[in-house]
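Illustration: Putative redox protein.
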Amino acid sequence: MNTRVKWLDNMSFIGESGSGHSVVMDGPPEHGGRNLGVRPMEMLLLGLGGCASFDVVSMLKKSKQDIQDCEVEITAERAETEPKVFTKIHLHFVISGNDISEKRVARAIELSADKYCSASIMLGELAKITHDYEIK
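Result:
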């Protein structure tokens, strides 16, 4: 897997993925940025949410669940001092569909967290990661 980050100006950067997609990252004005894009640490959380959601949706579909929507709301706390690593991360899944099995949702989230989601397992080496869910 290869990616590239190129400095644009001020504190703006463009990240280019090996699969041909780009994303703008920028800092807040108080750090020389212009607030034109997501912060790099936010990107880590977005990657975690994408990885976990991919797993959960995939497993629920494979188990024949009539899933209509999946959102994950992620909250995180960072250390007070440098390096300001994540210390706590919480993922709240909101699953919508028809006759969704609570047992299957719980199992999909557990398998993602413990076995399949590389981002979760890697970030979990430093941060305490918790999960919960609701079914609508």
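Reading the tokens back as a structure: Strands lie at 3-9, 12-17, 22-25, 66-78, 86-98, 128-135.
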